[in-house]
Design goal:
This protein has 203 residues and is α/β, with parallel strands linked by helices. It is built from 6 helices and 6 strands. The protein has helices at residues 19-28, 45-58, 62-72, 87-93, 130-137, 175-187; strands at residues 5-10, 32-35, 81-85, 101-104, 118-123, 142-147. It is globular.
């Protein structure tokens, strides 16, 4: 692909840790211009996570301000793809976005604000999000993929820079298949010549 496409990566609830760098590198090598902001603005995830959950219920607050600022940094004339992981997926689904959205194992609101195509990624062993996967599957613009045996955050290695340990969380053999699905979803929606994703924001 000859032109770089804009991609916003939104991290999990344990903050902008080193595992996100591997996601940034993955897509930079595929010809994307990637921004991955710290939704917690330097605060410890142990302090910031509970307030972030409150903000998810209201759809307002600093995590949305940071995400929107990062989105706007790409410029208003180009649609932007968003890849959200866990907390970041929940944020992405609540934002008014025209570009494609990858929502990986995030809580799904009853009213999804994202207007573009959506790829939902879930693990069958991530039982807390079973209802979210089913809810997203009813969205007319969503394609939901559930990977057998995978738990929460199975796409990455949360042991890198994570301030706490969570049972049944972490890499799974299905991760490679899920990453293939994500890359195909995003790559197939960008123009090879311009890197654009179609409808410009604001239309």
């Amino acid at each position: 692909m000859s032109s770089e496409a804009p991609l916003l990566v939104l991290h999990e609830g344990w903050g902008r840790s080193a595992d996100i760098d591997s996601v940034v590198d993955r897509f930079s090598h595929r010809g994307y211009t990637v921004t991955a902001p710290d939704l917690f603005e330097g605060s410890s995830p142990l302090r910031a996570f509970a307030p972030a959950l409150v903000q998810l219920r209201t759809g307002r607050g600093s995590i949305f301000d940071v995400a929107r600022s990062a989105l706007d940094s790409f410029g208003s004339s180009r649609p932007v793809a968003v890849l959200g992981l866990s907390l970041g997926a929940a944020v992405a689904l609540r934002m008014d976005i025209d570009g494609p959205v990858v929502a990986a194992y995030g809580h799904v609101p009853r009213k999804v604000a994202a207007r573009g195509p959506i790829l939902g990624i879930f693990g069958s062993a991530d039982f807390a999000l079973t209802r979210s996967a089913a809810l997203l599957a009813t969205h007319p613009n969503a394609d939901v993929r559930t990977f057998d045996g995978a738990g929460h955050s199975f796409l990455i290695d949360p042991s890198v820079g994570v301030p706490w340990k969570i049972p049944s969380v972490g890499p799974h053999p299905a991760a490679s298949q899920a990453w293939e699905a994500i890359c195909e979803f995003l790559d197939s929606r960008r123009d090879a010549a311009t890197g654009d994703f179609g409808v410009s924001r604001g239309q």
